Amino acid sequence: MADNEKIKKISIVISKGSLEAIYPGLIMANGARMAGIEVNVFFTFFGMDAVTKKKMNNIKVATVGNPALGIPTMIGALPGISALATKMMKKQMEELDIPPIPEFIEMIHDAGGKLYACLATVEMFKLKREDFCDELDGIITVGDFYDISTGGQIIFT
Amino acid sequence: MTEKMLADFTVNVNEEGYLTDPSQWNKEIAVALAKEVGIEELTEAHWKVIEFLQKEVKENGKLPTIRRINKVGGIPTKELYQLFPDGPLAKAAKIAGLSKPASCI
Pfam families in the record, alphabetically (chain B) (predicted)? Predict the structure, then answer.
């Protein structure tokens, strides 16, 4: 492929806060950096849990309303099921050397990926800069997000 | 697979320029491959990464992840990206005479 046909920049929106919703965005962001692609990640709504200090260590798999998981909704709603499914999935990921979310965030940051939180959600959830991990590059508006995404592709997850 | 001259040695490479026979690799070839990917000089820090990758492939039969290069190899991710900008694992593997990374992580 000629150099001018290659993707040079992407911006990824992570909008949901379950484990299986956050990881794909992070894997794509990290993978982009590994391929020499410039990356912005924009965390909005519950996706912001991935960069919120109090939440980022405790992200869980959604076991209710997740038919692909193969667990009946009634069972998925029982106490401890989500924790169990999360534990199993984390073990699988550890075997593949996929890091836990806080370490993954640090890795993407160290790789030069930029991480932003959505101002509207920050205000709605009444959060402050100190509620977020140090790796966060800023709290920005949707308009700012489009500005920094100029010249690249946007992926919504 | 094609033959190619690198630093006065004839080597076999695939269509992306990765060596197909690791036994053909030597340090002069590494320097030539580094220039191909835009790295003008291989410093001691570069060699540390290259040697770690070669050791891992020899021992485990596969390239380490960037996480493993950090945790086991002791090379921080930030430094790895500074040493081999724009695709550190792929570039380092190419220079080390190894195959292209086949992992998403």
Answer: DsrC
